[in-house]
Amino acid sequence: MNTESFEAFKAHWLAHGFDEVLERDWAPGTVLETHSHPFVAQALVTRGEMWLGVNGKTLHLRPGDTFALDRDAPHTERYGPDGATYWVARKS
Prior knowledge:
92 residues, mainly beta, globular, RmlC_Cupin_sf
């Protein structure tokens, strides 16, 4: 997968049947308690850092790291002191 640009990331995931591709920006120190989403997600961190808690483990993610979430997977999110940005593809 080409991760050099948002347009390439978007084209890749749309070609693989995903419904939408977004860029998400998070403010410094944002914390999201346990929640879930009604979609599958494939994401690439592009700025800052975040911690993703899923299945009893916490992942520390930085630019260039990827993560995936299954539909309705309970998880937590915490964003670093500079916030974070990631590109995410979603499939309902």
